């Protein structure tokens, strides 16, 4: 468990991006461990010297302030009061995380694309596959993906989005311990099952997790900030682990494509 001072600093110093740097690194590290030799060669020849999937996993967040057009690419707002994903309604003109994953997947696989375009496509893919597995990047409750919903967790007040980006992970063991445990928890059956379906299918899973776990456990009296207890944290921790594991497996599957 991280220190309370570190949590407070993170709350006010880090923007609300999916998973935060640690979560994105974990996705990248899991994916890297599952690359086949051909994919690993392609990835490393596309990245610059010294770069890895994990070290570049938050690049897309780092350039958001200077490339404003990329901001809508990190999420898709699917209202939890509705029936689920509708691409025509929720992702007009493909300007959302699902549309961009499809677009950059094509560029990454195109041997005729310019090297700079393929590298950028790879960096966006690494990040956006992680993004879409953070449930609040595939769901909304008329609260900007949880950014305007206030909660209290372990004595700290924060918005719901920050809780799922970083605060839950901050209460878990250190990154190396999580990587060791989570990577070993992934079975051969998981590696075969999780990449099946479409990106839209994966988004529906994230949406369901948001509806049932993220928002389903947030209750409070009108005018009061909900206090999230042990039951919420246990369910949330399980969801965080599974979503990061799935993201790593699915990213590896995309990069392993010939």
Can you walk me through this structure?
With 258 residues, the chain is mainly alpha-helical. The protein has a single domain (4-256), classed as P1 Nuclease. The chain is 56% helix and 4% strand. It has twelve helices and three strands, in the order αααααααββααααβα. The protein has a three-stranded mixed beta sheet. Helix 2 (20-33) packs across helix 7 (115-132) and helix 2 crosses helix 12 (230-256). The longest helix is centred in the C-terminal third of the chain and has 27 residues, at 230-256. The radius of gyration is 18 Å and the shape is globular. The N and C termini lie far apart (41 Å). Mean pLDDT is 92; it is low at 1-15.
Structural class: mainly alpha
The residue fraction in helices comes out at 55-70%
SSE string, helices as H and strands as E: HHHHHHHEEHHHHEH
Shape: globular
């Amino acid at each position: 468990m991280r220190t309370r001072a570190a949590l407070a600093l993170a709350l006010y110093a880090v923007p609300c991006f999916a998973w935060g740097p640690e979560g994105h690194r974990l996705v990248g590290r899991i994916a890297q461990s599952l690359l086949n030799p051909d994919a690993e060669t392609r990835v490393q020849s596309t990245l610059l010297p010294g770069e890895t999937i994990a070290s570049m996993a938050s690049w897309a967040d780092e350039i958001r302030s200077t490339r404003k057009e990329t901001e809508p690419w990190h999420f898709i707002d699917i209202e939890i009061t509705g029936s689920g994903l509708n691409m025509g309604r929720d992702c007009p003109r493909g300007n959302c995380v699902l549309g961009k994953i499809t677009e950059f997947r094509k560029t990454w696989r195109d041997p005729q694309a310019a090297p700079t375009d393929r590298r950028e496509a790879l960096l966006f893919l690494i990040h956006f596959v992680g993004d879409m597995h953070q449930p609040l990047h595939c769901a909304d409750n008329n609260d900007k993906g949880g950014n305007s919903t206030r909660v209290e967790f372990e004595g700290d007040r924060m918005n719901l989005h920050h809780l799922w980006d970083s605060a839950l992970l901050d209460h878990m063991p250190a990154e190396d311990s999580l990587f060791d445990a989570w990577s070993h928890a992934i079975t051969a059956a998981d590696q075969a099952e999780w990449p099946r379906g479409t990106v839209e299918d994966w988004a529906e899973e994230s949406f369901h997790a948001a509806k049932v776990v993220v928002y389903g456990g947030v209750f409070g009296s009108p005018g009061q900030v909900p206090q999230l207890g042990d039951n919420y944290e246990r369910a949330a921790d399980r969801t965080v682990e599974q979503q990061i594991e799935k993201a790593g497996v699915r990213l590896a599957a995309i990069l392993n494509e010939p």
